[in-house]
Amino acid sequence: MLRSGLIQSRRSFATAVQDSLLPKKYGGRYTVTLIPGDGIGKEITDSVKQIFAKERLPIDWEEINVTGKEGSKEGVREAVESLKRNKVGLKGIWKTDATQSGHGSLNVAFRKELDIYASLTLIKNIPGVKTRLDGIDLVLIRENTEGEYSGLEHESVPGVVESLKIITQFKSERIAKFAFDFAKKNNRSEVTAVHKANIMKLADGLFRSTVKTIGAEQYPEINVKDIIVDNASMQAVSNPQQFDVLVTPNLYGAILSNIGTALVGGPGLVPGANYGREFAVFEPGSRHVGLDIQGKGVANPTAMILSSALLLRHLGLDESADKISKAVYKVIQEGKTTTQDIGGKASTQEFTQAIIDELAASA
Ligand SMILES: *[C@@H]1O[C@H](CO)[C@@H](O)[C@H](O)[C@H]1NC(C)=O
Ligand SMILES: *[C@@H]1O[C@H](CO)[C@@H](O)[C@H](O)[C@H]1NC(C)=O
Ligand SMILES: *[C@@H]1O[C@H](CO)[C@@H](O)[C@H](O)[C@H]1NC(C)=O
């Protein structure tokens, strides 16, 4: 099977965003919304800023300093307005406090507000990073706007809480098409729908049957399968190489992307992207804020840098995307200047500098 790993064209990623809606250049430059978020967000987006500056990329950042801690709706509005202007963003993660009352996660509100419905996580071994299993190369595509994240919860009588999971045919079709289009454009041959239709016969049944129908009717060249989420979790840790493209409702995607992230070496390594009809926001594939290592200068910025490479592809700057990804891979493979999470001793800044040096050397 032909598979492109790092090197994918813009067309292969800009699946959901219509061409007419791609960001416009002004004076040959793009303005991109930058939302560092909480935790290690500032440190790892700093790495990206340095690399882009050294490479003299035609990108101007519009930095939005909103933190999830304050949980301000105004903050989200500011970020949303910026995204609506610029159409493309790079984002860290906002902290969500489990005990926060009054509103839900800012991350969820943000994605819903912009209807960025498809979330993509690229789970692939990086040469030089030791893992239990090799040969993993799977793409996880997660519906991002409904399912268990509807935000519809209430206590109907004291001690009884109802939490509504919403699955619609429209959104199931939309995410299924995204997954098949992605598979088609990236020479992948199989899409597997993850569900729990044996228990949630109506909701997950609708998701499963929709994916299967769209596949059979509109993408006959792509093999379509389905798997129960429990089994998918077991298979993911025992034989992940069997998976090609997985398409999931919201919560199962959150869980499986974390399993996948652990398989290939942790949250510091896995890039991701979120696409809507009009907007694209690039952020690490597994959404960890990293409060425990915040401010220590030890975070691994790889996930953020590789996400920024996906952003460059989205803007049609494929050459720069390839160059930066290759430099990151080379520094990790050499193993001399890597961060603690993957067994090295380097700081975030030393690792970033090693990438900048590698870019200069290969120029
Ligand atoms: C956010 O912070 C950065 C650097 O700390 C600063 O350059 C930028 O102007 C700030 N943005 C806003 C909107 O205040
Ligand atoms: C997919 O395969 C075709 C034909 O082999 C090739 O021309 C194309 O570049 C490949 N696309 C990607 C994204 O790998
Ligand atoms: C679990 O998945 C494996 C491989 O994907 C499949 O062969 C097996 O039949 C599945 N088991 C159940 C109980 O669905």
TrEMBL record:
Residue ranges occupied by any Isopropylmalate dehydrogenase-like domain in the UniProt entry: 31-355
A UniProt-annotated Pfam family: Iso_dh
Subcellular location: Mitochondrion
Principal location listed in the UniProt entry: mitochondrion
Keywords of this entry: Mitochondrion, Oxidoreductase, Transit peptide, Tricarboxylic acid cycle
GO biological process: isocitrate metabolic process; tricarboxylic acid cycle
Similarity-based family: Belongs to the isocitrate and isopropylmalate dehydrogenases family.
Protein name as it appears in the record: Isocitrate dehydrogenase [NAD] subunit 1, mitochondrial
Taxonomic source organism: Wickerhamomyces ciferrii (strain ATCC 14091 / BCRC 22168 / CBS 111 / JCM 3599 / NBRC 0793 / NRRL Y-1031 F-60-10) (Yeast)
